[in-house]
Write a structure and sequence with these properties.
The structure is a single chain. This protein is an all-alpha fold and about 290 residues long. It has 16 helices and no strands.
Length: about 290
């Protein structure tokens, strides 16, 4: 799956009119929503949103199903039920649910963006691109859709100027968009624009501290510019997030060895490489070399 953040679909007046979600969240959390104030179906939908935001996905799914049983034409319920499937990487179910949402309301850009994310996850890149293009036609200021279309164009190896434009549009609209900064940086690294790439990688890791790939790429880029201590810190951040990243342990071992650090930490890093990849020839050779010294 892509690094795209899955977001809640926003209200669309053309598809669904309902009370203010943040007010209903407060009422629902206190159990004081009046059934006379809003239709029962909408209360159930808002309850689903409330539990979805709280991370209680099973209860959220139950409410979305309840809504769709009573009102199969509820487009946003189909979309949010699709988001649950996408979160669980159940891509066939996610595709079907987003298609149902779009068939009921083809004017909501968020529906098309999420549909594109599923297609991207399935490596149906051209279809994903078309979905993101539709989202941007409906809302040209949709930062996530710009970042997503940049990613699929990168996967399709399309014109680099267009890819760069997409990521820069996302950043213009949302300056702290971590995915846009990260993927723009990867493009700049391909172009050997290491200085600017590092600037965007710094933004990526500053605004998203949970993705090992961000820190790994940042660490390697820092190493290329001979900022070794910072590189080591970034690679150690990867290990904190993913202790079983054999390639990261290998890069740490190389860095420690090149910096002339004591053999103990180098051996420990190499031991972790071999724990994860027992036939890693480079690690076997370097470990033997370290022990000879």
């Amino acid at each position: 799956m892509s690094t795209n953040a899955v977001v809640f679909a926003k209200d669309s007046e053309e598809c669904q009119a309902k009370p203010s979600p943040h007010v209903l969240d407060l009422f629902l959390s206190q159990g004081v929503v009046s059934g006379s104030a809003v239709p029962d179906v909408e209360v159930s939908f808002q309850q689903g949103l409330f539990f979805h935001r709280q991370g209680d996905l099973s209860r959220a799914a139950a409410f979305y199903r309840q809504v769709l049983t009573c009102r199969p034409s509820h487009a946003e319920a189909w979309c949010h039920w699709g988001i649950l499937a996408l979160t669980g990487r159940n891509y066939p179910e996610a595709l079907e649910r987003f298609r149902r949402a779009i068939s009921l309301c083809d004017t909501n850009p968020i529906f098309f963006n999420h549909y594109g994310i599923v297609l991207q996850s399935l490596r149906h890149y051209q279809e994903a691109k078309e979905a993101f293009e539709t989202a941007l036609t409906l809302n040209p200021d949709y930062a996530d859709a710009w970042a997503n279309i940049g990613q699929v164009m990168l996967s399709l190896k399309q014109d680099q100027n267009n890819i760069e434009h997409a990521f820069r549009q996302a950043i213009r609209l949302e300056p702290h968009h971590a995915d846009a900064h990260y993927f723009l940086a990867t493009l700049l690294l391909i172009q050997e624009k290491n200085g600017e790439a590092l600037t965007h990688l710094e933004q990526a890791v500053a605004h998203c501290k949970t993705k090992p790939d961000y820190f790994y790429t940042y660490g390697i880029a820092l190493k290329k510019t001979r900022r070794f201590d910072e590189s080591l810190a970034a690679l150690e951040a990867v290990i904190h997030l993913d202790p079983n990243s054999g390639e990261t342990w290998w890069q740490i071992a190389l860095l420690l060895h090149d910096l002339g650090r004591p053999p103990g930490p180098v051996e420990q890093a190499l031991a972790n490489v071999l724990r994860l990849q027992s036939n890693h020839g480079g690690a076997v050779s370097l470990l033997a070399d370290v022990r000879r010294k």
